[in-house]
Please model this.
Amino acid sequence: MTDGHWIDERIEANRERLTAWMAEKRAEVPIPIYGSVDVRDAGWKVAAVDANHFPAGFNNVPEEDRPRLAQLLREHVERTAPGVTWVHLYPESHTRNPGYVENLRTLVDLLVRAGYLATVGSPELNDFSQVRGLTGHLDLVNVQPNDGGGLVVNGRKPDLVLLNNDLTTGLPAVLQTG
Model:
């Protein structure tokens, strides 16, 4: 038996114990709401080559997996920010890229499936009421700085702001506190 088969059998035999251990560890540290890892397979080895804290590929999630993903999003938000009903997505400023817009459209769909009001926008995008994705348009909302810190969307403060922005140009001023 190869080492790979031996490891696989040990993992499978201890699945419940490993699952319980993972749940215990997850409870000890704050887990980001999302992230992604780029993996390369050379045929003889597989390696993670890049980790992204703000992934842009939700549109690549198969339709049959989206109900479960929406449920997982809801569970995460309820665990980390109980009482949230409105999630505002703060996107990249290059939101006019159709592939990226499609990612945002899918993320909005997942949040709506999870039972949230979901809006998208940033002050940099206030000149646009909508942008086009690969399969349709995405409505944008007006975003302004709030005098007390944070941001307001169409005159109201969202319950949760979900960043989908790689912060290449730094943390937007509207999101800075103190």
Q: What stands out?
A: The longest strand covers residues 46-52.
